[in-house]
Amino acid sequence: MSLIGHTCDVIVVAAGRGQRFGSHNPKQYAHLAGKPVLRWSLEAFAGHPRIRRVLPVIHPDDRDEFLAGNSGLTLMDPVSGGTTRQESVLRGLDALSADAPNFVLIHDAARPGVSSALIDRVIDGLGQAPGVVPALPVADTLKRVDAQARISDTIPRTNLVRAQTPQGFHFEKILSAHRAAKGLELTDDAAVLERAGGMVLTVPGAERNLKITTPDDLARMEHELLETRIGQGFDVHRFTSGDHVMLCGVRVPHTHALLGHSDADVALHAATDAILGAIGEGDIGVHFPPSNAAYRNAPSEKFLAHAMTLLGQRSGVLVHLDLTIICESPKVGLHREAMVASVARIAGVVPSRISVKATTTEGLGFTGRSEGIAAQAVATVRVPTNA
Ligand code: MG
């Protein structure tokens, strides 16, 4: 069957209460790397070129939270789920049937790691079968145990797979299968189609597409979704006449001032460039051109705060920022604690994530001749792997 010209909609099932998660908040609204769990999969589907419409099925009590956490996404108006997952899916299918797609994918909101490639594999499989399930092999040996935790049986792993979502279906087939299975409690949508005699094909799933069940899974997922990146920054400003310098946002009395278009806070400039570098956002001059009079004498904390905003927009976090200030004088040691606190405040992180060090160059070079101050920064950030 050719897939050209076929329409494919998605139902994202998010109506469950998630008792096993053990928090007041249903797990699909728990925060994962800066945004709700549910939003991760909604974004994956809404941004996929082969998906026509995305229909969330939610618990009616969660409507406000749903709307607050998913602004800016192009989605269908959410449908209220039923008392069982199966009932929730049927409500979703019914809602799509007025303008029925050829294919429908049905996805559990608790799987935020769904990738574009996985979505493609499931849709591609629908050219060969009316049902498609992403699946993974079983690596561990499987045992059956009795009520006393004693093994009663070893189950051969051959031909066993673990089923994931999104599961894909020919729309009319899964709709009629669900209608016929009303009131039953089958474990997934593939089982509904199997019961109706429909063939279900497996395609390779993905370990990263794991299902979040416990708070531990959330931590694991965060590890999966984010990658570590390092950025470095370097800056120099020359001395001019004056009575203080700004370093890390702290006013330090000195025999000279630093010359610059802004307040010439060489340390914050290096820190800003380190963060911009870690996210591939050019350098400070790109974002705050010296030709722009608006930045004349500007406090440099603006620059660092802007870099942090860009990082936040990518759902990234600052893990650590290590600063080295290079000069013969002023002596940085006296002000180190204030500098750490200042950078932490501007960056919005705890002080333990900030380090401020100082060194001289033993009288050598321009810093040794006290012509100016140099600063280096290394930023470690965690950002989503696809950012
Ligand atoms: Mg500078």
Short key terms for the protein model shown above:
2 domains; single chain; Spore Coat Polysaccharide Biosynthesis Protein SpsA, Chain A; binds magnesium ion; 28% strand; 19 strands; 60s Ribosomal Protein L30, Chain: A; 387 residues; alpha/beta
If you had to describe this structure to a student in words, what would you say it looks like?
The chain is an alpha/beta fold and 387 residues long. The protein has two domains: 8-213, Spore Coat Polysaccharide Biosynthesis Protein SpsA, Chain A; 226-384, 2-Layer Sandwich (60s Ribosomal Protein L30, Chain: A). It has twelve helices and 19 strands. It has helices spanning 37-46, 63-69, 85-96, 116-125, 171-180, 189-195, 215-225, 266-278, 284-287, 301-313, 336-347, 365-368; strands spanning 8-14, 31-32, 35-36, 54-58, 79-80, 103-108, 131-137, 142-145, 151-155, 161-163, 167-170, 200-204, 226-241, 244-247, 250-253, 256-258, 317-326, 354-359, 372-384. The strands form five sheets. Strands 1, 4, 5, 6, 7, 10, 11 and 12 form an eight-stranded mixed beta sheet that branches. α5 crosses α6. The longest helix has 13 residues, at 266-278. The chain is elongated and about 85 Å long. The two termini are 35 Å apart. Magnesium ion (MG) binds at residues 235, 237, 260, 266, 269.
